[in-house]
Amino acid sequence: MKNVIFVAMGIALSLLVAACGPKEKVTSSWADPSLKGYSADNILVLGMGRDEVNLKLWENVFVDLFSADNVRAMASHKVIGTVPEPDEKIIREAIKKTGASSVLITHMVDSKSKTNNYHGSLHFVPGGFYGGMYGYYGNTYSSVYTPPSHITRTVVRLESNLYDVATASLVWSAQSEAINPKLLRTDFERIVGLLIADMKKSGVVH
Prior knowledge:
This protein is α/β, with parallel strands linked by helices. It has a domain at 25-113 and 149-202: Rossmann fold (3-Layer(aba) Sandwich). The chain is 36% helix and 36% strand. The protein has helices at residues 2-19, 52-68, 77-80, 88-98, 133-138, 185-202, and strands at 23-31, 43-48, 73-75, 102-118, 121-126, 141-146, 149-164, 169-179. Helix 2 packs across helix 6. It starts with a helix and ends with a helix.
């Protein structure tokens, strides 16, 4: 009976781990090798998309974490509001207003959800009564039931590009993903922290 209970507990734990989130990571990144010694500062942080609330939160988190590392940064929505579509003129005006020397642009590349259905299961173990045929008949098996469950896994993928204003060239680029994000500030802080760490590792931010 104990073995069956342990099996059932193991299955339940596996489902719980699968459902837990969010999980964030930088999946790939690139930095221009010809720009050794480049240091981004006075960065205009620009989020592209249609969800105004989350875009503002994303930009604010980036600015806050940059500031914590003594890197100057400005959220674009505080200068130009939310940009619903890419607009070169608006971005140029924001750069002029802020005096930004670098621009960091992030947009969502993809978002996919998949639901896995786990059927319920019934586990049997022989009973402990073997005193005779008739006694055995009434105490043959004990059982543990694992109920069915449905686990939805959502993966959101982002691309972040850092540009040098003077040359308009791409300095650094990274692709990142979050699994089952709840779109809370803590979610954004984790992924932004990973992106800034990658910038530092790549040498484009000091």
